[in-house]
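Lecture 7 notes: from sequence to structure.
We start with the chain below.
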Amino acid sequence: MRRSTIILKTFLSVLFILAIMVTASHALIPSLINYQGYLTDATGVPVDRTVSIDFAIYDVSTGGTALWTESHSTVAVVNGVYNVMLGSISTLSLPFDQQYYLGIDVDSDGEMTPRQEMGSVGQAIRADTAELALDVPTGSISASQLQDGATLTEISDNDGTGSGLDADMVDAQHASAFAAASHSHSGADITSGAVADANIASSLARDSEVMGIVTANDGTGSGVDADLLDGQHSAAFASSIHAHSGYDIISGTVADARVDVTITRDNEVMTIVKANDGSGSGVDADTVDGVHASSMNIPSGAVMFFNLSSCPVGWTALTTAQGRYIVGLNPGGTLAQTVGTALNSAENRTVGSHGHGMSSAGSHTHQYRDYMRTYTTDNFHALLDSNWTLATSGSNYSNRYTDPSGSHGHSISGAGSVAGTNAPYIKLLVCVKQ
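Predicted structure tokens for the same chain:
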């Protein structure tokens, strides 16, 4: 075991409680030794914690058998200093008539070395064996034979209540200068400090208890039923259940969740209208663009184009119009008369295709005349035909006539055919009103 890790400085004193009774037998004197030690760790730092210490008393400095032992399981060590009362657990009954040695073991680390030599103070307990004062016959000691200390002891032993002196004064003060052990004070006598909570009667409310007491004993709802709230009477506030006019809502919007479910939302209007409307589960309005239905009846036989795959209710397909152009009926014409062959589906038919033929004129003769009319300012040629009259006289005229003759022929081949023009079109469904 390590022995040098803890330094111990020891001070021994003896606490004696002596009671001398002049009776037929003497009283026992209890013996306790107040032990104070100083404890550090291996580095010399004072220990500051709770430890367990085992004490033993020997009659030899090393080895031997302990004459007395005592264990203190919880010893508070503060800054290295600790105090124990030896004999408070195991009775200290040694006679102290020889040299003794104290052994110490901290936290079961082994007994420290060397053992502490106990001084003569312990041996003072031996005074218990003084027997001269035992069994003194009554009246055998006169007043002159008593020492002052013995006289005071005798006085104390026979004094008033509590076996103490009932003096006339204490420190030159009469009893009237002191307060009785049990007395009271006025609140005005407390001029400084504060009375601790523990010294105030439990019947007086603490700060943390005030509201609990008030609300527990208050009116309806276990809340404070005050006359005013922030300086206002109840008349200044609305009841928890109250109503408002729509005019009171002057800003913001009422959330959808706050509106009664019986109020129709925007996305519900048309569903409700159609579900409760007339035939066809569609809106059967009184007017359309301000026109009543009576003013826009479509007569039977009316023909309309529809961009639909089938004709609406009340209409049938006009099959004779399929693949044909629609032409207005001329006066005296036949209604719904068809002419020509209808177009096939998506047919791109050429239109207006035709040809020209020319027969040969054979051999023939052409006659022409060349006439020049001369002016002083201009001249020109004129090709004359039989509708013109040839001038034959007059001044400033010069006539020249050439009349060649001969026959020739012309050959003309077939002109062929001229391609027609494709007509662009869109196909729509043609329906007739029933």
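Points to note: Residues 148-157 form the longest helix (10 residues). The helical segments are 148-157, 207-216, 269-275.
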